[in-house]
Amino acid sequence: MSPALVAAICERHFHLEAQALGLQRRASRAIKVARACRRANQARVWKSAMPGLMQCARVAIVEGRMPDRRQTHTWGGLSAGLPCPVCEKTIADDDVEVEMEFDGRAHLHYHLHFRCFTAWEVALKRSPHP
Q: CA-CA 20 to 30 A from 86: which of 1, 15, 17, 44?
């Protein structure tokens, strides 16, 4: 093989590698933009649902389904399939739940959706209760 041919093949190879690297960078940027859009959309949906969930949390506190004070222990994990006392819907088996314990007593356990737990905490902070 002539040196000119080897040089041409090498140059073509480096050119193709540079193109591939450029495509990878563009794809990586596109993935980051798509993820940011997805997060923004989820945040928009969450903000639109939050007032309704906070109202449910306030009602749960008034009706005695949820305590009007802070928990002593909090855990998170996969759902046990129990109903959420805030929205009164069953927590799906593949959903994450927040489990809370009050005063270290086993019978004072509550299982909530994460979003319902957040709404309950916000409602608790804004309520006039001690």
A: 44
Would you list the domain boundaries of the chain?
3-126
- pLDDT computed for residue 20 by the predictor: 66
Strand, coil or helix: what is 17?
helix
Q: Where are the beta strands (DSSP E) in 4-87?
A: 73-78
Confidence (pTM)? 0.60
Name the one residue in this structure whose structure tokens are 């649902």. 49
Tokens describing residue 6: 């080897």
DSSP per residue over 66-127, as a string? S-SS--SEEEEEE--SPBPTTT--BPPTTSEEEEEESTT-TT-EEEEEHHHHHHHHHHHHHS
